[in-house]
Task: inverse folding
């Protein structure tokens, strides 16, 4: 029904955000969410303007009328996804911190690119930037709990998006390798298996593996490379979490491994992903 | 009809996510009885003061058995030496508890016909306050069992050993040979800690010193160490607990609120208006309310009961802790007396978490993190004493007209929070004297009061 997988992503992320508001008491304020959305979209606009890729027609122009949805909107799918991702994951002590994270996230897309691909997933870059700045941002890994219903919901929604994007291999490779590593650790330490189940059943982990590491604009093109790439992220996450006791291990792992995509793409050729295949539309991801 | 499939999938996702709604006190180590007395610890309190990698952990238990039988085994991340251990005053726990306990606030409705005038009292009533006590000892290094005594010393009334072990059966045997009766099923639980290269802090009471100390209760033990691990081992504590155990964790941080990272942290219901009779049964009220919330959250979350900068409170249920008391509680980043402070005075932020855990819902030890969230929170319940005097003016009659509906609302709030029967609660509501009201007032009440 919707041609662009990003529209699914936007609707699902909005759903998660609303659910988070309604059923999990996050310390999240509407002002912060609005700041994220506004700053991301404005930064995108400015970025497009600076690189000279602003949509030619404005929504109010006579040409645009009668065409249904303004084609230029597609350029703002990406910043909306980034903003929703930041709002769901990043916790801040003031809206200004969210604004900084948003600007950093969008700026990273325009500044760090390689052959029309981004070196980092924008939300991931924004989160890391906020965590690196002296102390006003944090991530709450326990925010979804381990409710089986939430995990099922993430699996259902995430599965749908990832299948449309065709990057299910990455999610599966990540979850399986991380699961196996945790299982080996569990076996070595001699914990009962419910400890393993509890570690893997975290809503935040499942959400990450469906909605963040599958960003087609930052991951390798060939499926072999993607599997290797996801496996590396799992290994780094595992190490940072269990040996350095880092609560934000997944984000750091993705941040460290993301740029390796360049190398992997050089080794394995694959089909370059575009959000839509119609030439007259923008393909900014 | 492909779109229909997506709509259905989306609808299922929404429904799934909405179904989720359905649904005491203990310790990080286990007690080791030297006699056969059944020791079930149901409640414990822990203070964790942490800044950077440095942790000061104070442990108090509601140990009920004979002092001579008391022994405690707690996994710790590093070797702890004599200078890292001290006993502290149980009063500090009581002070922290009093300062942060969920509170009932009481207001008196003024005579609606008189000049505005109000009084306000805060009334503290704690969630059940557990008392304190930890500690075992033994000697002889048994190399063949793979157990090494890393250090051995006495602090206050406690004899303390820091053990490292190579394998769990060896450690269990060693403890048994040295007179510590480990609970059945302890060995498999010791293994993960041994493999993570953690040490064991073993404490027991030195009876001579205890007798001469003049204390009637065991005092809390305070240990400090540097480690990136910010956790509390609760698995061992579940070996000798039959039922759900309650743990109150006070986390002191120079940054802001602390939270649990591997379970959800949920705020207890707060700022609800309840009927005035709750005043006399606030303890029961809080217990029932906590039970209801605990069940509602499927018994798998940590509850936030209080989060506030130690410098203040509003309303205060007890005086904030003095600097000296904060230092006793383990806060180590405050300046020494006469020390010049450059810049801002260091902050001490208190988070009170209440975890009720059982083996099936809490398979993993608790992991924490400090955040920069400085938003204040407290478990606070509001009681408004209605004005029961005569209605001498129009406003007074209006007040009387509206009062029954308000009382009913408060009763419903209470029933919702506690799961108590609404009919029983209605019987306890005060009778509103409607004698001063005209037939028109009564008619309007009938029309609008519902």
Result:
């Amino acid at each position: 029904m919707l041609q662009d997988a990003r529209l699914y992503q936007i609707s699902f992320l909005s759903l998660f955000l609303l659910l988070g508001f309604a059923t999990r008491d996050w310390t999240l304020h509407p002002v912060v969410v609005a700041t994220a959305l506004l700053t991301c979209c404005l930064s995108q606009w400015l970025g497009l303007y600076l690189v000279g890729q602003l949509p030619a027609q404005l929504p109010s122009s006579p040409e645009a009328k009668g065409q249904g949805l303004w084609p230029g909107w597609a350029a703002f799918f990406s910043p909306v996804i980034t903003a929703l991702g930041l709002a769901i994951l990043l916790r801040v002590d003031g809206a200004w911190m969210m604004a900084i994270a948003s600007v950093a996230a969008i700026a990273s897309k325009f500044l760090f690119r390689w052959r029309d691909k981004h070196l980092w997933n924008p939300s991931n870059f924004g989160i890391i930037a906020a965590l690196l700045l002296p102390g006003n941002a944090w991530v709450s890994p326990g925010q979804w709990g381990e409710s089986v219903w939430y995990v099922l919901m993430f699996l259902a929604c995430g599965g749908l998006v990832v299948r449309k994007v065709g990057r299910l291999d990455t999610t599966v490779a990540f979850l399986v390798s991380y699961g196996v590593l945790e299982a080996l650790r569990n076996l070595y330490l001699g914990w009962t298996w419910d400890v393993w189940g509890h570690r893997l059943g975290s809503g935040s982990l499942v959400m990450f593996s469906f909605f963040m590491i599958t960003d087609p604009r930052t991951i390798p093109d060939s499926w072999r490379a993607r599997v290797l790439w996801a496996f590396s992220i799992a290994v780094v996450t595992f190490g940072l979490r269990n040996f350095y006791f880092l609560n934000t291990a997944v984000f750091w792992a993705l941040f460290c491994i993301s740029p390796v995509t360049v190398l992997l793409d050089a080794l394995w050729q694959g089909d370059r992903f575009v959000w839509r295949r119609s030439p007259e539309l923008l393909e900014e991801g | 009809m492909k779109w229909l499939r997506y709509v259905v999938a989306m609808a299922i996702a929404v429904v799934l996510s909405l179904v989720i709604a359905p649904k005491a006190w203990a310790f990080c180590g286990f007690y080791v009885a030297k006699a056969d007395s059944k020791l079930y610890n149901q409640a414990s309190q822990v203070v964790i003061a942490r800044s950077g990698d440095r942790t000061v952990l104070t442990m108090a238990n509601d140990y009920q058995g004979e002092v001579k039988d008391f022994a405690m085994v707690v996994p710790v991340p590093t070797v702890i030496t004599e200078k890292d251990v001290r006993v502290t005053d149980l009063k500090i726990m009581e002070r922290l508890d009093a300062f942060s306990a969920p509170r009932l606030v009481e207001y008196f409705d003024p005579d609606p016909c008189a000049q505005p005038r109000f009084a306000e009292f805060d009334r503290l009533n704690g969630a059940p306050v557990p008392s304190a006590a930890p500690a075992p000892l033994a000697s002889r290094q048994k190399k063949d069992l793979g157990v090494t005594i890393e250090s051995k010393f006495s602090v206050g009334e406690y004899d303390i050993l820091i053990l490292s072990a190579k394998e769990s059966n060896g450690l269990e045997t060693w403890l048994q040979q040295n007179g510590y009766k480990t609970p059945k099923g302890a060995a498999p639980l010791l293994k993960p800690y041994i493999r993570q290269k953690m040490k064991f802090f073993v404490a027991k009471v030195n009876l001579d010193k205890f007798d001469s100390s003049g204390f009637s209760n065991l005092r809390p033990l305070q240990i400090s160490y540097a480690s990136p691990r910010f956790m509390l081992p609760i698995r061992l504590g579940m070996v000798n607990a039959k039922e759900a155990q309650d743990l109150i964790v006070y986390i002191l941080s120079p940054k802001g609120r602390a939270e649990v990272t591997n379970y959800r942290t949920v705020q207890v219901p707060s700022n609800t208006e309840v009927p005035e009779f709750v005043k006399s049964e606030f303890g029961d009220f809080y217990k029932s309310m906590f039970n209801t919330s605990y069940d509602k959250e499927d018994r798998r979350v940590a509850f936030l009961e209080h989060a506030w900068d130690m410098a203040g409170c509003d309303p205060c249920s007890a005086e904030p802790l003095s600097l000296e008391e904060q230092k006793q509680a383990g806060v180590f980043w405050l300046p020494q007396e006469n020390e010049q402070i450059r810049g801002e005075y260091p902050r001490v932020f208190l988070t009170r978490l209440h975890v009720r855990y059982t083996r099936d819902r809490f398979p993993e030890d608790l992991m924490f993190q400090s955040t920069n969230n400085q938003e204040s929170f407290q478990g606070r319940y509001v009681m408004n004493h209605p004005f029961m005097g005569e209605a001498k003016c129009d406003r007074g009659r209006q007040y009387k007209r509206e009062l029954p509906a308000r009382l009913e609302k408060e009763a419903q709030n209470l029933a919702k929070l506690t799961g108590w029967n609404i009919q029983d609660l209605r019987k306890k509501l005060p009778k509103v004297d409607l004698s001063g009201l005209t037939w028109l007032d009564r008619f309007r009440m009938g029309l609008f009061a519902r």
Observations:
- The mean pLDDT of chain B is 79.
- Chain B has ten helices and 21 strands.
- Chain B touches chain A through 47 residues (CB under 8 Å).
